[in-house]
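Schema walkthrough. Field components (list of strings):
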Amino acid sequence: MQSLKAQILEILSEDCRTPLERIAVMTGAEMEKVAQAIDELERDRVILQYSPVINWDRTDRERVEAMIEVRVTPQRDMGFDAIAGRIYRFQEVKSVFLMSGSYDLLVLVEARTLKELALFVSEKLSPLESVTGTSTSFVLKRYKQDGVIFVGESTDKRLAVSP
Amino acid sequence: MSERFVSPRVAQVPPSGIRRFFDIAGTMKDAISLGVGEPDFVTPYHIRSAAIDSLLDGETQYTPNRGLLSLRKEISEYLRLRFGVSYDPEKEILVTVGASEAIDLALRVSLRPGDEVILPDPGYVSYAPCVTLAGGTPVPVPTRAEDEFRITAAEIDAAATPRTRALILPYPNNPTGAVMTRDELVKIAKVARDRDLLVISDEIYAELTYDGEKIAFSSLPGMMERTVLINGFSKAFAMTGWRLGYACGPEAILSQMNKIHQYAIMCAPRQAQVAGVQALKKNRENGYEDVETMRRSYDRRRRVMLDAFRKMGLSCFEPRGAFYCFPSIRETGLTSEEFCTRLLKEHKVVCVPGDAFGASGQGHIRCCYATDMHKMLEAFSRMEQFIRTL
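Field assembly_structure (string):
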């Protein structure tokens, strides 16, 4: 049996707009208990934000994205945390991960134009003291993100009535 | 003109009530359907992928009649781990084309002309016709919402005659969502022993039990020798279109079922069997993650649907298994058929009239909650509107 919090997380990860009342029905728990559990999940920073998965390609917003592999020199006592902090504070940076393998940090960057993004790398990222090298790859097409498939239409292939 | 070539025994079997309703529903575009009888999940990708690999590897031949031994071994292990029953993969398991074939085989093997078969009413649409086609006589036993749609040992005993040969025990139940308790099953086991009945236990929805114990009837003391356990991949693994089921039981019965199967069918499709191996093996290794994830999702939607019907003022027994609610619509003054037809024509929501599953289903409708949450909520608001106009 899953804990109430695990059930709530599963429900919200599928649809973060599920109203409190329906979560209570779905889990069979009282609404106050659900509200309290969500408060705790937010307070403990388990739930950080409620944001939709957006297919920006279907909007008129201009946008380019790149994944940048960054090699850095770790700092004494701070390891990679200090340099990661320098990088993730830039507004253009959407995600930063410390990676195993041939580079250290994977940085997801978003900008309005190709030029803006290139300038971010050459003027903000590369000059940082501990950064020893970068390799930038632009995102061409998004197939799937956060478990959501972006391409094609999903249709119900079932018969309308079956035994 | 050509009717003279049709056997009276087949001609007398009425067409499925579901089929009749399907023809009406088929003409309605944009209707929201709560009338389906299958999962809304697509078969998990790793399972589909295993079947694709097998095709690419050129595995396009017949398999043994009883099914791939690797599959029978996985089935045996699955039943042991999940239900605590033990079947010999060599002799006591037969892989069939869906659980439906297994039901048909069990009846054809066991019935003599005129033998009676007890079955709960309402129940799955194919039991009574399959009994008739096998030369037997179906004896429906009404079940009621007040009794949570459980068939009782006393009712079975009362319905039994010296001609009674078998009992079909389909729990969790389609269309009601009823599940049995261990206590009642123990009592039924006693009646089965006293009356010397074969029990055909259709456990296709067993994994979709939300409340209460998941019990294989053959696990009860002494029941192994008189039970044909029927199960399959359609519901637990979202594999309806693959048509993969199985029967487990005593060798004396299974070998005769296999005889019909080998003459009529030969074997279940190889790719479906390969997919079945993948489904059971991977889930055995990962703690039945596919099954549990889907079960949790159905359970949440079950609660939402039940809550919605109760708020609409329809009395609804709490279903504890399968993926259907079976609310009463008696208070509306309409028959099941009238309710469903008007709901479809006036508000474009498809439900199945309860009497399609037997006379005792009159006054109820079957609604499937294996349906996208947003569509389901829209369907509820249309139903509510409809009920207000009555």
